[in-house]
Amino acid sequence: MKKSIILILVALICVSAVFAADNTVKVSAVPFGFQISTSSADGVDAVKSRYGIGLEAAYQRTLVKGLYAEAGLAWDTFLMKNDKPAFTHLLVFAGMGYKCRFAENWACSLNVDLGADTLFYNGKTSETFTVATGLEGYYVLNEGLEILLGCKGSFGFSKKDSVKYVNYRILPVMGISFNF
């Protein structure tokens, strides 16, 4: 079902090309991140990261004034406490957002994405369904170039055998977007 949702959202983005006028490519870095992973298994405590870094690239297509569809790829690595192995994930996502320009050189956006997240930890991989949201502020340099700062949060849900896992992430972001 996770893959079906992603494919449907990507198809909507492709079909929206007929109605859309504006395109944006956004590249951002995560200079610091934090993750907590919980498990429903008895006796297993939550695992917390002490530091995380990452990158994200997204393609956005404006549907109507301010409303956009997006698809992208995000990668983050979280360094764990007590010398545990690093926790890495690769997220393929698609979603919707709204961007509002409220002054000549300032704008902000709010988005919600769904994604398929592949987690890599200690030589093992697992798939997770992830819901992510973000709030970003933009300084508009010119009509084609913007600098952004913001924060994203995500929740990843997985079930393996009878054990349920949830990953929570908080990711400050900074980057640049190119409008064409």
List the SSEs and their pairings.
Layout: H1 2-15, E1 23-30, E2 34-39, E3 47-64, E4 67-80, E5 87-103, E6 106-121, E7 124-142, E8 145-160, E9 163-179
Antiparallel strand pairs: 1-3, 1-9, 2-3, 2-9, 3-4, 4-5, 5-6, 6-7, 7-8, 8-9
Unreliable spans are: none
* Percentage of residues in helical conformation: under 10%
Fraction in beta strands? over 45%
Query: Total number of helical segments?
Result: 1
Our measurement of the CA-to-CA distance between the termini, rounded to an integer number of angstroms, reads: 34 Å
> Strand tally, please?
9
Global geometry: globular
- Label the structural class: mainly beta
Largest beta-sheet details: 9 strands, antiparallel
What value does the Rg take, in angstroms?
Answer: 17 Å
Q: What's the average pLDDT?
A: 86
Secondary-structure element series: HEEEEEEEEE
Give keywords.
180 residues; nine-stranded antiparallel beta sheet; 1 helix; mainly beta
Descriptive notes:
The protein is mainly beta and 180 residues long.
Briefly summarize what is shown.
The chain is mainly β.
